[in-house]
Structures are given as C-alpha cells and as structure tokens.
Amino acid sequence: MPLTDTACRTARPDPDGKMYRLTDGFGMYLQVMPNGSKYFRLKYRFQGKEKCLALGVYPATTLRQARELRDAARKLVKQGRDPLQQRRETAQTERLQAESVFAVLCREWHAKLRPVWTPGHARTVWARLEQNLFPWLGDRPIAEITAPMLLKTLQRVEQRGARETARRILQICGQVFRYAIATGRAIQDPSAALRGALAPVVKSSYATITNPAEIGPLLRAIDGYRGAPVTRFALLLAPLVFVRPGELRKAEWSEFDLEQGLWRIPAARMKMRVEHLVPLSRQALELFRELHALTGRRSYVFPGARSAQRPMSNNTVNAALRRLGFASDEMTGHGFRHMASTLLNEQGWNPDAIERQLAHSSSHSVRGTYNKAEYLVERTEMMQAWADYLDTLRHADPPPRPAAPSRRGKTVRSEASR
C-alpha cells in the first residue's frame, strides 16, 4: 500500500528499539530509526547489483519530493546510468565549482604563501585583494574571468590615483591565475594579456637633502624638536643608522647588543629577507642607551603612542619633519638613506661597503652574493666617520669639507631609494 503524508507524520519509533520500514512502491520506502529519525530510501538494481539511494530526510523532504527523486532515479537506470554515480559526479562538479570561485582560490593561494611572508606583507596582499577585486570578481568562477573584466576592475584603482597599487594587484592576479592553472581550475591567465594596458607609473625619488649647507640646519631643527620623546629619538637616530623607515620603527630591543655596539636586524624584517648588521657609532649608542631607559622594558624600541604592543606609526617621522617645517618635497624619513648614500660616495668610501650598509642587492653575480658581515670592519669605521661628519655639520656654519676615509674606493653614486 502506498505511503501517505499522515502515515509518514505519525510513524513512531519501534518500542523494542528496532529499525523498521514503511514501503511506498517502486523500491521506495520510509526508514524509521529507533531515535525517531525518518529517511526516504530507494532500492534499485544496476548491472545486476542491488543498490540503495538516499532520497532525503522527512519532514525536510516531503513525500511528494521523495517520489519525484525516485522517478528521476528510475529514469537514469532505464538510460543505463547509475543514480549513485551520477550523484557523486554532480557533487564533485559542484565542489570544484565552489573551489574555483576567484575569492576562494585567492584565499587558498594566500594561505600557502603566508608562512614565507612577513605578517605585514601578508596583510597588505590580502587587503589589496579584498578591497579592490573581491567586490567585483570575488564570486565569479576564475575560469570565467576575462582580460577585459580584470582591466575594468584595475582601472577603478587607477582612477583614484593609485597607479602603483593597480600594477601590484595585477602582479598578484598573475600569481593567483597561474596557481589556478597548476591546480586544474583554469586554463589561461588573463592578466598576461594586460601587459602595457595599465597607465605607466611615474617614478619619483624620495625627497632628501644632500647639500651639506642644508643638512646642518636640518640636524639643528631635529635637536630642537619638542614633540613626543620617542619620536625625537627616532628623528635623531634616523640619519645615524640610515636604515629603511620600517626597519627603524619596528626595531625591538632583543635585536641590540649595546655592549658590542651592533644592531642585528632579523631576515624576516628585511626587504631582501637576509639578516642585516648595523654597526652603531658612538653617537648612536649614546642615544640608544638613553632611549633604553625610556622604553627598554618594552619589546619595541619605538612603541606606538596608543599602544606599547605595537610600533610607532609609519607616518610618525614624516609628520614630525612636517612639524619642523620641512615639506614633503623637501625631506622624508626615507630621505636619510639617500643623504648618506650620496655623501658617502662623494667622500670616497668603498661603494660595495656602502651598498652593504644600505642592505641593497646587486645584479652583479659576485657583488649580489649577500654576506651579512661583508665589509663589517670597513662599515664600522664608515658609520663612525659618518656620525662624526654629521656632528661637524650640526655645529659648523659654513659646513666643513668632508673628511676622506682611510681606505678609498672608486666613487660610485648609489640610489638609496631602491
């Protein structure tokens, strides 16, 4: 006798705790479990073997819906197709489609590379994807994304003046598409077709002061800074160590050996991912020891104004320079690197030693081999001579002629903004 909605609804668990079935016809039945759960099932034979297909859970699946699923399954059997295999293939297709959505692939790619990135870089990459691409492309299957679609999305970034960001996002997209191809979820990389399609990025050097006659007033202005003490120390130390602004503001006390006068920056915080040694001049050591009394109990040398658990803001030094009256096209925190590079080269110091102290890489096969301690003795002498030279500029008017190093090298200008 066929099932009715009433029979399905009123079926109760067996008092003896056994499973039982209520048949409907054509192999379909309602399976009532000891705990009261009810399942529609279909028994059928395929290629001589008896099989069972789940049709749904009652009452989420109604009797009518279960019968429709039964009839569809029986049609497949008549066509020589196995309903169970068909369901597995459909589920696999749906799973692959879900995994092939652009945002999902980006998340998967990002998770694989995140362990080898610095936390800051990982956050930057994800923010660029999430804010600039996901609103328009995130829900699309990656195989459906075309070059015109991607270009239109990147042009939105360009239109707000962020040309460099658009270029970097295009590079990220290329990596994601190549990952999709490697994992079998795409067959082409539309980002490759966009080479030359974005507006060119106009390169500009970091604003800096390299005229000795102007460096003295800059240093005296820094001496007179009346803002936050930690910011003042950052301003005083920036020209002495001339590391990248991010390397300075994220410095931690665990990296310093104030007895030996050495700052050892770990590879994870360096642009080239190689540990970097910074010999500290007598003047720099004096400042770091004075600063240690202020922030030495904390992790960061330059803790943030709002939270000591985070380093100072990346705009703190530049904002302080503006407060001192130096416009953004006159001097920047990064400009201290270019200042040191230009003058040290003019003074005749070994260009290789200067490049190592700036933590630059070289395309030359020999000079490009990075040894963190390379030229360390010469660099130590150079850093002390540089600090002494800055002192003479600070106190002299007009500025003195630069002192020559004890060991001269061929004078080669170096771009500190690399």
From TrEMBL:
Q: Which GO terms of the molecular function aspect are on file?
A: DNA binding
Sorted alphabetically, which InterPro entries does this protein's record hold? CB, DNA_brk_join_enz, Integrase-like_cat_sf, Integrase_catalytic, Integrase_DNA-bd_sf, Integrase_DNA_bind_dom, Integrase_recombinase_N, Phage_int_M
The reply to whether Ribonucleoprotein figures as a keyword in the UniProt entry is: no
CDD domains noted in UniProt: INT_P4_C (cd00801)
Residue ranges of the Tyr recombinase domain?
A: 205-388
Q: Give an example GO biological process.
A: DNA integration
- The residue ranges of the Core-binding (CB) domain are 100-181
Annotated region (Disordered), positions in chain: 394-418
Q: Which UniProt keywords apply?
A: DNA integration, DNA recombination, DNA-binding
PANTHER family on file: PROPHAGE INTEGRASE, PROPHAGE INTEGRASE INTS-RELATED
Please state which protein family the record places this protein in. Answer: Belongs to the 'phage' integrase family.
Q: What is this protein called?
A: Integrase
- Gene source species: Paludibacterium paludis
